[in-house]
Amino acid sequence: MIFGRVKPLDAILATAEKKSLHRTLGWFQLTLFGIGCVIGTGIFVLTAAGAQKAGPGLMLAFAIAGAICIVAALCYAEIAAMIPVAGSAYTYTYSTMGELLAWTVGWALILEYAVAASAVAVGWSGYFTGTILNQFMGIHLPAWLSAAPLALGGAPGGFINLPAIVIALLITWLLMIGTTESARVNAVLVAIKVTALSAFVALTLPSDYFSTDRFNPFLPAGVFGGFGTGVGAVGAAATIFFAYVGFDAVSTAAEETKNPQRNVPIGLIGSLLFCTVFYILVAAGAIGTIGGQPIMGPNGIPFPAGSEELARQCALPQHKDALVCSGEALAHVLRVIGWSGVGNLLGIAAFVALPSVILILMFGQTRIFFVMSRDGLLPERLSTVHPKWKTPHIVTAMTGVGVAFAAAFLPVGQLADIANAGTLYAFMMVAIAVMILRRTAAHQPRSFRTPVLWLVGPLTILGCVFLFFNLPSAAMLVLPVWGAIGLVIYFGYSRSHSHLGRGIVEVPEAH
């Protein structure tokens, strides 16, 4: 049977029980951890793309994406507390729905992490060229060296995004030689990000430039832009869903949390609510000060974010200050309203903080590769550890080349949409896995149980499907095409080399 290879839950849990973590985290620490994981790329980078899709309705888009993340987070919390092992949604699916579906989830996660890292690299490139080179060094990098080619939706004259390639390969090199982040450095970067965004809100919302007139019309493209268009408030929500990815890191801390039944949902929902309100305030500040109306096409529908048509419009003098045309939206807003110095500091904050996000995403992708290789589904050579650096250098190098290539030739909005397609599929499978485990492992200890799972589980599935079908059609197509390539690899190699299929199941002896 194709679906018959289910990895025994006892084997997974026995491995997990070998490590016993001390419960030290309270709800406040969890909430701060969640805020640090979530705030980053999306709000710094995707504000312009979201405004082009929804106009002032970007504020509603943040609320929609945040609500779907909250129900998905509750599902993640139960299963992460119950199966606290590496592999995330891939491992959860393997233990409930079998090897084939687990392969599809792992394959989608590989796409998600790599493309998300590419999106962050492109976003970092915008702040690097706009703030560091232009503002501080007086260097204007030509468009052909700093933007994706026109055929793929870049700026006029774009050929290759060189800064994005450089940062992607630099992070790859750091990962290969074994450089890791310390918690202290990460905490400083979180403080920089939150301080920068707080300063943005403080300077824009009460400013003399702020006008409520700029919020009309509030939904220029409507709530639903239409199937496959990726516009409207829901289309923008499908894109800026990217701004919330990272919250699942909170759920994985469930086994280190005091009173997880109470503190995990507070940490998850608290951090997501904080980020949602924060994001809405940032969007309100940006739109209320310089406007955020999309540039409309002749048919009354906004030009697609990152498209050739939009790039041509943004090159016109009348749109030079438009929010939707900026590659470093928040710094750009502050410069337009006369706070150039603070805008430059915000650009520096993004320049400094975003590489850590690339590192985390690429590290996560190599971990998924590593777990799948350990299960025999990918060649074990991929997870070979370098004798000197003690890192999986082969898979890290492959990942880095793929990330650099995508960052070189695709604009940030398209990359975020593609990454979201893989993320939404993984989140949906986690919700299904939680509901299955409630029946197949009903008596298994759970330090956290998702409240009203009969409602939260289906809402998560429907929410993920809903956002997926509001992505642009090109992004929707990437997932099944990528999945088809994965199935060829699975039936051509993985199925016959699977450790589980060959009867190799490691179950540590009970002590």
Automatic annotation (TrEMBL):
Gene Ontology MF terms: amino acid transmembrane transporter activity
Entry's transmembrane regions: 27-46, 58-80, 100-124, 159-178, 185-203, 223-245, 266-290, 345-370, 391-412, 418-438, 450-469, 475-493
Compartmental location: Membrane
Organism superkingdom: Bacteria
GO cellular component assignments: membrane
Topology of the protein relative to the lipid bilayer: Multi-pass membrane protein
Protein keywords: Membrane, Transmembrane, Transmembrane helix, Transport
Name of the molecule in the record: Amino acid permease
